Amino acid sequence: MTLLQSWVTSANTAETDFPLNNLPYGVFSTASLEARCGVAIGDQILDMAALEEAGLITLSDEPVFDVPYWNDVMELGPDAWETLRASLIALLGADAPDQDQIAPLLVPMADAELHMPMVVSEYTDFYAGRHHATNVGTMFRGAENALPPNWLHIPIGYNGRASTVVVSGTDIIRPNGQLKAPDATVPSFGPCKRLDIELEMGAIVGTSTQMGTPVTTAEADEMIFGYVILNDWSARDIQAWEYQPLGPFQAKAFATSISPWIVTKAALEPFRTSTPEREFDLLPYLQEPGPMLYDIDLSILIQPQGGIEEMLARTNYNQMYYSAAQQLAHHASSGCAMNAGDLLGSGTISGAEKSERGSLLELSWGGKEPITLQDGSTRSFIEDGDTMTLTGHAQGDGYRIGFGQCTGKILPAIAFP
Questions:
Q1: Strands (E), 30-141
Q2: Annotation marks residue 132 as catalytic
Q3: Which CATH code for domain 123-411?
């Protein structure tokens, strides 16, 4: 597929994240407009609430775009999602007949504030990147026992906190927690000293299931509404003390950031790719009927307080061992009910090379190999005042499908108790 032409001229460049091919969904407000649904096109946002009010688009008997979330649209189901995308392409395409009516409903992105694009029903994070799991396992258990015995058979995950999922641009307060130094006999309480990011993709579930009802991997793929970039902020020292025997808890619960635009599965369709060959055949319910990963280039950037931004790593979503569809199918396999607005974190995305590692834990190898920044300072983990940014896009023929940035600045911990 090549670049689709739009009468919104800023969408017709190879550099924009938001060509007509993309049309991602977000929530925005301005000085004069309350938060409502919008669609990114070039450097503009199409006001979907105003478009609906003008009678230029109708998905349901009741309004669905005059609210600060896309959950109502999700619950209309895949047929409605397809109708919506086709309608938007027709309205914004180069030969659209209603340009004079739609142009006043465009809002410059520069004048808008972006908000959470949906209400997160539940949040589950997975541990499904093989290079990341191997690196972390090697650090803590040695190369021979790097992967747990179940890892090559099952998408490992844990239930996180929906209450602290925040949109890009939200400052992150350094968490407090219980810490125990290797040479200490008892733990202490205080600010995390080994704060980290995890570069992930987030899959948004768009349709619900009944408790007790499993879904196939193919059905799970149809349930996914779209994708965001996700930063699973991690307090490594808190995690090291608390994680046995039940896994992550407070070390992950304090914050998860997502990019502000939901990129639809339809926009990513040209970039499908397959998961890797398996050392062991997966059980039938996890086997994929076709390619269910995506070729999405991803980057990690850091900007120290008052300093310049620089890149720390680049990788690709195609490195995952399990797709979001497999993760969702496994999640529902026990009969666990899934809800529209559920968010599934992919797990940290790392490649085979050091320059492709998706966390500072890996990049600094647990602090043993500090990273030297352009200003001469070093980082093993994130310091107060650092701004961490994750970006990503799928590269097409003369166009790109972008997600916008997923960024957060670290603020000092709150003194407690």
A1: 36-41, 44-47, 106-108, 113-115, 123-126
A2: yes
A3: 3.90.850.10
